[in-house]
UniProtKB/TrEMBL annotation, chain A:
Superkingdom of the source species: Bacteria
Entries under Pfam families matching the protein: ABC_tran
Protein name: Phosphate ABC transporter ATP-binding protein PstB
Origin species: Actinotalea lenta
GO molecular function, one term: ATP binding
From TrEMBL, chain B:
Species per Swiss-Prot/TrEMBL record: Actinotalea lenta
Compartments where found: Cell membrane
Gene: pstA
Its membrane topology: Multi-pass membrane protein
Signal peptide boundaries: none
Keyword Nucleus: no
Name of this chain's protein: Phosphate transport system permease protein PstA
TM regions (residue ranges): 28-49, 77-106, 118-144, 150-168, 200-221, 280-302
Keyword Cell membrane: yes
Length: 259, 312, 330
């Protein structure tokens, strides 16, 4: 049931400042798409417009269209809350709720929406989501311990479990490994490979090897200078992007000549 | 310079005497200022204990002043404690929702001129003299019910005018301590903003919010002047906030002290000429103990119920 | 993936707005905005209701006021009745401020720059305890320790009079017992000490470390560092702290009511009894026994107090907020 995303002529503003200009791209369903580019090029900002999280920041707005399976996310009768329920997000730093146990963290998306759920359904959902996040075996004996008692990598997988527990169609990941050690990073990358059978995954990463390892498509964003908007330079199959990119900037960036 | 002198010796032993002395004198003055401020604290504590223990007894805490005359040592402050609890409760019930929602507005929703105006005037409101709050509550009910209305709820409203800005300030501070990441985590799960605020932000901040409310209560529980104007004096137990005068501990302290010495006949051993002062001090001791307990419990709540943050 | 989550059949069509959550959000946001606005309404209501209730006194002829109010002097307009009260209020607050500010600055420096780091919070808490003591208890204490028979108020007043008696402020016969404005001001000083200390301490702690280290690296002693880096940085903060203390001292009732022997003159002799009175203490003293027009008159004086404290507080907050803008993001 994973869904495709189509973006057309998208401009993103903070107040009057144009942060990202003129992005058009198609993200296919059931695949992993990576966004790469130098710091400040707007890739995270762009990612946040895909589930309308950017509007949490005061003054942020967009022009253009983002649609999921043909439904425009920004039309007036669309509820941003419903959008976020179907398009999950994992953040740069693991952010489990400190007041909740591991199990409660997984159930947070359901419970926080005031939805009732029988005890056995809840237990099933916890197991299913934690299994899906490759965390079940590590935490099944201490589900009632606080989420913050886990290691950083485990916390991040808990956040992924939390995100998939609301059964989204799409998962957005904003540099999910940048705060983690290499072993935890590997665990997350394996998980991404497993998840792409069911979800459309979009991942922002600083790490080009990571993009090459996990993604099928790669989009390269760049910025001309401070104060200028970030732009999508090109997007293609990951293999093509890393072997023979069509734009010079991409090649420079990938071969490490700048950025 | 034509005649170059030898390089000056590497002087690290003593700086000039004048500078050294100034430094020491100022250090002394600064320490003195602190000690000077401690003397009233110690002196007040000592006075209240030394004078207050004389009349303080279980009997004193469980009886009212109804039918107590002259220099008799009977009577107590039960009616005043009850009034203080009820009126403070009324003030809390009014202030906490308004204060908390205002803080939520300022932290979660507030942008633009209204938010700036609210921030500014909350600060200004903390400076309203307590007696003016009393006059306001009196005037409010004088306009509604006609002059001379005196009952507990008016006092509660007067106190809530003083308490609300304190609740806003402390709650605002606590809500701002909740990391933004948690809000984003909840929003990204498709939780509506208001449920995010209720179930994540408020729940994370609940210990701090409780502490803030308790400290706000401690701040107003000792207010005398506004209650003098609104709830009045009484010797009897009154548990109805909506009818009749209601005694409170601070007003009891003032009115007992105000009554002054009792003239006693020579040889009347049952007559204690100092009884009114002794009652005032005993009530003061009770009040201080209540205030200090509130402060202490508030700090314990903050320490032990604060959520463990995600830092490892 | 071994388990296949059973999905609810929600396509992209599930993105539409649901009515239920809309109501909850709207209600909650409405309550928040409403509460914020209510704060402004209350402040306006304080002014409005005081004005309504003061109106009969404001519009009565002086003769009427004198006839129907026992304590209202003859041949005096309301303005010339309030005048000495305003004078007394300002003088008492000024005394408190002059005593409290330097001590508070000293305490704030002690806590921020002299005391060992790990005691600093505890020492700050001790000072805050001074604010927790109810004003009526300060009144009792002031009467016992300063005014009473063996009180230390009388010797202090005598020494001040003997040494500084040539200054008009300390002229006149020192009161026995010491129910003077000076003693009342001393107690007020204790009461406003915590707020001035708290604000000053905050400001001193914000001194950029770079400035402090720069002056220490130039070979400054600790005091010279404070004079070069901390005090200039904190000056406007101390000013606004003092103004906040002033606002509080202007409105303090019980301590003045219990200590001061009142009088209604424009006398500068702060060591004498029966010369001055403050607005707040006068209201508390007369209110319980006052007749309706008397109450209106007292509310009119309360309105004057409200306006004065409002002006002082707004000025103080304005200074603070201006400071915040300048030292803000950098």
């Amino acid at each position: 049931m994973a869904q495709r995303i189509d973006v057309k002529d998208l401009n993103i503003y903070y107040g009057s400042f144009l942060a990202v200009a003129d992005v058009t791209m198609n993200i296919p369903a059931r695949s992993v798409t990576a966004f790469i580019g130098p710091s400040g090029c707007g890739k995270s900002t762009f990612l946040r417009t895909l589930n309308r999280m950017h509007e949490v920041i005061p003054g942020a707005r967009v022009e253009g269209s983002v649609s999921v399976e043909g439904v425009s996310l920004y039309s007036s009768d669309v509820d941003p809350v419903a959008v976020r329920r179907q398009i999950g997000m994992v953040f740069q730093r693991p952010n489990p709720f400190p007041t909740m146990s591991i199990a409660e963290n997984v159930l947070a998306g359901v419970r926080l929406n005031n939805r009732r759920m029988s005890r056995s359904d809840a237990a099933d959902l916890v197991e299913e989501s934690l299994t899906g996040a490759n965390l079940w075996n590590e935490v099944k004996d201490r589900l009632d311990k606080p989420g913050s008692s886990l290691s950083g990598g485990q916390q991040q997988r808990l956040c992924i479990a939390r995100a998939i527990a609301v059964r989204p169609q799409i998962l957005l990941m904003d540099e999910p490994c940048s705060a983690l050690d290499p072993i935890s990073t590997l665990a997350i990358e394996d998980l991404i490979q497993d998840l792409k059978d069911e979800y459309t995954i979009v991942i922002v990463t600083h790490n080009m090897q990571q993009a090459a390892r996990v993604s099928e498509q790669t989009a390269f964003f760049n910025i001309e200078g401070t104060g200028k908007p970030g732009r999508l330079i090109e997007m293609d199959d990951t293999r093509v992007m890393f072997s023979s990119p069509s734009r010079k900037e991409t090649e420079d960036y990938i071969s490490g000549r700048f950025g | 310079m034509a005649t170059a002198t030898a390089a000056p010796a590497f002087q690290v032993h003593r700086i000039e005497t004048r500078r050294r002395v100034t430094n020491h004198v100022m250090t002394g003055l600064v320490v003195l200022a602190f000690l000077l401020a401690m003397t009233p604290l110690v002196s007040v504590t000592w006075s209240v204990i030394a004078e207050g223990y004389k009349q303080l007894s279980p009997y004193f805490l469980t009886h009212s002043m109804r039918g107590v005359f002259g220099g008799s040592e009977s009577g107590g402050i039960y009616h005043a404690m009850l009034g203080t609890v009820l009126i403070t409760l009324a003030a809390t019930v009014i202030s906490v929702p308004i204060g908390l929602f205002t803080a939520i507005y300022l932290v979660e929703y507030g942008r633009g001129p209204l938010a700036r105006a609210v921030t500014f005037f909350v600060d200004v409101m903390t400076g309203i003299p307590s007696i003016v709050a009393g006059l306001f509550a009196y005037a409010l009910f004088a306009v509604i019910l006609g002059p001379g209305a005196t009952f507990g709820l008016i006092g509660g409203i007067a106190l809530s005018v003083l308490m609300t800005p304190v609740v806003v300030r402390s709650s605002e501070e606590m809500l701002r301590l909740v990391p933004n990441e948690l809000r984003e985590a909840a929003l990204a799960l498709g939780v509506p903003k208001w449920l995010t605020v209720v179930k994540v932000v408020l729940r994370t901040a609940v210990a701090g919010l409780t502490t803030g409310v308790m400290i706000a209560i401690a701040r107003v529980i000792g207010e005398t002047a506004p209650l003098l104007l609104t709830a009045g004096f009484s010797d009897s137990i009154n548990s109805d906030l909506f009818h009749g005068r209601m005694m409170t501990l601070p007003v009891f302290i003032y009115s007992s002290w105000h009554k002054g010495y009792v003239p006693c006949n020579a040889g009347d051993v049952a007559c204690n000429p100092n009884i009114n002062f002794e009652r005032a001090w005993a009530a003061a001791l009770t009040l201080i103990v209540i205030v200090m307990l509130l402060n202490l419990v508030a700090r314990l709540v903050a320490r032990f119920f604060a959520p463990k943050t995600g830092t490892h | 993936m071994t388990t296949t989550p059973t999905r609810s059949p929600q396509g992209a069509e599930g993105l539409r707005r649901s009515r239920r959550s809309g109501v909850g959000s709207g209600l909650f946001a409405g309550l928040s905005v409403g509460s914020g606005a209510l704060i402004l309404v209350v402040l306006a209501a304080v002014a409005a209701f005081l004005l309504i209730q003061a109106w009969p006194a404001l519009t009565s002829a002086p003769a009427t006021l004198h006839e129907s109010i026992a304590w209202f002097p003859d041949k005096t307009s309301l303005v010339s009745f309030v005048g000495p009260l305003v004078f007394g209020t300002l003088l008492a607050a000024a005394i408190a401020l002059v005593i409290a500010t330097p001590i508070a600055v000293g305490i704030a420096l002690f806590i921020s720059h002299y005391a060992p780091r790990r005691f600093a919070a505890g020492l700050g808490y001790l000072i805050d305890l001074l604010a927790a003591i109810p004003s009526v208890v300060y009144g009792l204490w002031g009467v016992r320790v300063l005014v009473g028979q063996n009180g230390i108020g009388q010797p202090i007043q005598q020494v001040l009079h003997d040494v500084l008696g040539f200054i008009p402020l300390f002229a006149g016969t020192p009161a026995r017992p010491a129910r003077s404005l000076f003693i009342a001001g001393m107690v007020l000083a204790v009461m406003i000490l915590p707020i001035i200390t708290a604000v000053a301490r905050e400001v001193f702690l914000q001194t950029p470390r770079l400035h402090e280290e720069a002056s220490l690296a130039l070979g400054a002693t600790r005091w010279e560092m404070i004079r070069m880096a901390v005090l200039p940085f904190g000056r406007s903060g101390v000013v606004s702290a003092a103004m906040l203390g002033l606002g509080r001292a202007l409105g303090e009732t019980m301590a003045v009511l219990m200590i001061l022997s009142p009088g209604f003159t424009y006398s500068w002799h702060i060591l004498e009894a029966g010369k001055q009175q403050t607005i707040a203490a006068n209201i508390a003293a007369q209110f319980p026994e006052a007749n309706p027009l008397g109450v209106n008159t007292l509310i009119a004086t309360g309105l004057a107090l409200f306006v004065i404290t409002l002006a002082v507080n707004m000025l103080a907050r304005w200074i603070v907020s201006r400071r915040a803008e300048f030292s803000g993001a950098n």
